[in-house]
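Action item from last meeting closed. Structure (129 res):
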């Protein structure tokens, strides 16, 4: 179980002229198979996060901060949750450098995807790393 990753879903937003990065996560029982995406568990975590984001819109208009890469999923070792992930979040909130965030998430985790949806199509994972 120590090798089992943690699936993190994060949204890159702007609200009221400030960046925000709400997170949602779930421990996975075992690592994802090579080449696999987070499947239904990832979709459920994304839905949970998006409901929270929708509720947040009561506080003001929201805007995606990174276009198609504004909804990300990453599998990370559980140990990174205490130090590396908060540092990456703080850095992105400070500078908004999405390319640097994505590169750091690729280095940190064992899989990185954006979740997209084309008109009248189901949600789809796009591998980023």
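Sequence:
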């Amino acid at each position: 179980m120590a090798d089992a990753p943690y699936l993190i879903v994060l949204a890159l937003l702007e609200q009221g002229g400030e960046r925000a990065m709400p997170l949602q996560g779930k421990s996975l029982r075992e690592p994802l198979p090579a080449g696999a995406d987070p499947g239904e568990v990832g979709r459920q975590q994304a839905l949970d996060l998006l409901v929270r984001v929708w509720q947040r819109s009561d506080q003001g208009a929201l805007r995606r901060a990174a276009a198609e890469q504004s909804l990300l999923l990453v599998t990370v070792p559980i140990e990174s949750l205490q130090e590396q992930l908060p540092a990456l979040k703080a850095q992105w909130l400070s500078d908004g450098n999405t390319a640097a965030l994505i590169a750091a998430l690729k280095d940190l985790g064992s899989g990185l995807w954006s979740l997209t949806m084309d008109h009248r199509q189901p949600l789809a994972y796009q591998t980023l790393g």
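Note appended to the action item: The chain is about 30% helix and 30% strand.
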